[in-house]
Amino acid sequence: MGSSDRTSERQAPGAYRTYPLPAHNLFYLYQLITLGNLNSCELLELDGRLDHERLRAALLQALARHPVLNSRLKPRFMRGFDIELIAKPLPLDLRFERCDTDEPGVVHQRLLRNVWQESFDVTVDRPVRFHLLETPSKSYLQIITVRLYNDAKAGYRLAHDVAESYTALEFGQPFDATPIQVVDRSTSGLLTSHLPLREKLRHSVGAVKLFAQDFFRPDVSMPLPDTPRGDQDFMKVDFGAELLEGLRRRAKQEKVTVHAMLALAMFKVWRASAPSKVGRRWLRILDNFSLRHMTRENADELYETLVVPYSVRLPTSGSDKEVLHAMVEQLNHWKSGEILSELYRVRLYAALSRFSPLKLSSAFITRYVAKSNIVMSNPGPVPYPLERFGSVPIADFINFSQLFPPSRVMLIFSTFRGRLRALVVWDRNAYPNGPERELIAPLKAQLAALATPAADAAPAAAAQASR
């Protein structure tokens, strides 16, 4: 895949364009329509106060680079949708709030309310808004975007652009706010138009096979109560730099990725909590696969959702090595280009959904595309420098998205400044007292054990057993 000049071109002022919403984004759109909220959030924790007018100007400069964030959804016949780029800048939605305490529980609830209390009307408003919450010692900048526009790379990109714009304004430095050219983002245009016909047919057949397997695979998931959907909560778990380095060493020793080690740790937590389900079944965990490297364009600068949900399936009776092997085999399979069969599968669901009532379509797609009550994703390290807003240091940065049904818990692992963290989002009805005891504590223990070099693991396990 070579880099193209198209994304590095700049749009002429006043440019106007309409293009189809990618088919795989309909999965997120249906969630938005039926749930009423499908927001993603980038949260920047700042050690100090920002100048309000400078922040407003910085946001306008950063947004000017991304025409997709000055657009609306335009319904078409039979529940198809176009994205309509608007030539005139839409109003900026920036809200300032004060909080009289730094107490985490109070701040936490204010931040939660900002993300999930209010949805977007994506046919009228910008698909992004900003909240600046100021406490006695800190500021919290939230960038809240509709999920069907946003993936981790896009969120990182915008957060970086806002920080760079603010810094440039404070210190009188240049900032290039010329709009980035929006390429044809439709699924066929960006991802599959260059494929020969035989490849398209092969992936179409593969999609039908995956579609059939959705109904017959005897998969299992986390042993959580079958309760109605409840409110959401989140917590940030810091695993630290030492554990991350240990996992990297162990992954290198096992010739796998850190992502595979994370999946193995989750698998071991599940196996300990559901011994009766271990056997001739597969544990299903939902993940998101980035399609950015599958495009023929250089999509790094584009604000875009270029992820497709897919299932990680791990053999419940397998040994640690067999589980790692299964995880690596699946990832290599998708990375080789076979993820396009999964993409065609989502397109198949989207096509079928147009011939049924909206709520039925959403329930059908949700049940079979997201056939898991646990989501585990690993966006990896933040690829852009995020150090400061001018003279105000950035203390921390996380990004997270909405937890959609039937999932009840989501873990988003990321690396920031050499530390492994996880943002944990959960359904309060599934975990009334929070997931710390049932999920987080066991996961920490499993990760710590996996971070121990293999040569030291057996003596440590024997010592533990003798206690």
The total of helices stands at 12
Q: How much strand?
A: 15-25%
Low-pLDDT segments: 1-15
Q: Helix/strand-derived class?
A: alpha+beta
Strands, total number: 16
Which architecture name of the largest domain does CATH use?
2-Layer Sandwich
- Name of the CATH class of the largest domain: Alpha Beta
Provide the number of structural domains. 2
Reported by name, the CATH topology of the largest domain is Chloramphenicol Acetyltransferase
Give average pLDDT, whole number: 84
Biggest sheet layout: 6 strands, mixed
- CATH homologous superfamily label of the largest domain: Nonribosomal peptide synthetase, condensation domain
Instruction: Please give the order of strands in the largest beta sheet.
Output: 5-6-7-2-14-13
| Overall morphology | globular
The proportion of residues forming helix, as a percent range, comes to 40-55%
Cα gyration radius (Å)? 22 Å
Protein name: Condensation domain-containing protein
Organism: Stigmatella aurantiaca Sg a15
Question: How is this structure best described in words?
Answer:
This is Condensation domain-containing protein. InterPro entries: CAT-like_dom_sf. This protein has 2 domains: 15-171, 2-Layer Sandwich (Chloramphenicol Acetyltransferase); 193-455, 2-Layer Sandwich (Chloramphenicol Acetyltransferase), CATH 3.30.559.30. It is built from 12 helices and 16 strands. The chain has helices at residues 26-35, 52-64, 104-116, 152-171, 187-192, 197-216, 240-254, 258-273, 320-353, 358-369, 436-451, 454-466, and strands at 17-20, 39-46, 71-75, 81-85, 94-98, 128-134, 139-146, 219-220, 232-239, 282-290, 307-315, 374-381, 388-389, 392-401, 409-416, 419-427. It starts with 16 loop residues before the first strand and ends with a helix. The protein is globular and about 60 Å long. Strand 5, helix 3 and strand 6 (128-134) form a beta-alpha-beta unit. The protein has a 6-stranded mixed β-sheet, with helices on both faces. Strands 9-16-15-12 form a 4-stranded mixed β-sheet, with helices on one face. The chain has 467 residues and is of the alpha+beta class.
